[in-house]
C-alpha cells in the first residue's frame, strides 16, 4: 500500500473559504510518486544494489531495526551484496532477516561481514518482479486519485468562492493529477 502521508484535508484548505493551496495537493501527489521510486529501488532486477535491502527489518536489541542502521550495505559487484555489521553479535540476526525477507536470498555469515550472493535473474523472477512493479504503480495511481478526490471535495465545500474559481481550481488539481499519473507511468515503463 502506498504511503498515506498527507491523508487529511489540511493540505489544501478546510472548507471555510480560506485560500486553497493547489501546490500542497500537488506536493502530496508527488510524495506518492516518490514513494513509488523508493519501492522500485528495492525490487530485485538482476544486478545487486544496496537499496535492495533497505526494507529488511532485523530483530535486534529487543526490537525491530532497519538493516541500514545495523550494517553498512555495499554492492562491490553485480552479483554480490556485502553487509559490514557494526556489532558482530547481530550478524546472525542480520543474515536471518535477509533470508526471511522474501527476496529469495541466501546470505553467508563471515564474522562481522554478511555476504549476500545475488542469483542470476530467471524468467520466473522477472515475471514476478514485473507483476509487483505493476501492482505498485497501480497502488500509487489510486493514491494520487484519492488525493485528487479529497482536493475536489475541499474545493467544492468552499464558501464564498465563485463558480469560475471552483472550475479553475478543479482544472489545476486535475493538471497536477495528470502530471503525477504520467510520472507513475514513466517510472513503470
Amino acid at each position: 500500500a502506498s504511503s498515506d502521508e498527507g491523508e487529511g484535508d489540511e493540505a489544501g484548505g478546510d472548507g471555510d473559504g480560506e485560500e486553497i493551496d493547489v501546490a500542497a495537493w500537488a506536493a502530496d501527489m508527488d510524495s506518492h510518486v516518490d514513494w513509488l521510486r523508493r519501492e522500485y529501488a528495492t525490487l530485485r532486477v538482476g544486478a545487486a544494489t544496496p537499496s535492495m535491502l533497505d526494507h529488511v527489518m532485523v530483530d535486534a536489541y529487543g526490537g525491530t531495526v532497519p538493516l541500514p542502521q545495523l550494517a553498512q550495505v555495499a554492492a562491490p559487484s553485480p552479483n554480490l551484496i556485502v553487509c559490514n555489521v557494526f556489532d558482530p553479535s547481530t550478524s546472525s540476526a542480520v543474515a536471518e532477516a535477509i533470508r526471511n525477507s522474501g527476496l529469495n536470498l541466501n546470505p553467508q555469515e563471515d564474522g562481522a561481514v554478511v555476504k549476500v550472493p545475488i542469483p542470476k535473474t530467471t524468467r520466473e523472477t522477472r515475471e514476478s518482479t514485473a507483476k509487483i512493479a505493476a501492482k505498485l504503480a497501480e497502488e500509487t495511481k489510486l493514491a494520487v486519485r484519492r488525493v485528487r478526490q479529497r482536493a475536489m471535495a475541499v474545493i467544492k465545500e468552499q464558501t464564498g468562492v465563485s463558480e469560475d474559481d471552483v472550475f479553475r481550481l478543479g482544472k489545476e488539481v486535475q493538471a497536477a493529477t495528470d502530471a503525477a499519473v504520467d510520472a507513475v507511468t514513466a517510472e513503470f515503463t
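Residues 80 and 117 are 5 Å apart (CA to CA). Strands lie at 57-60, 63-66, 71-77, 80-85, 108-110, 113-117.
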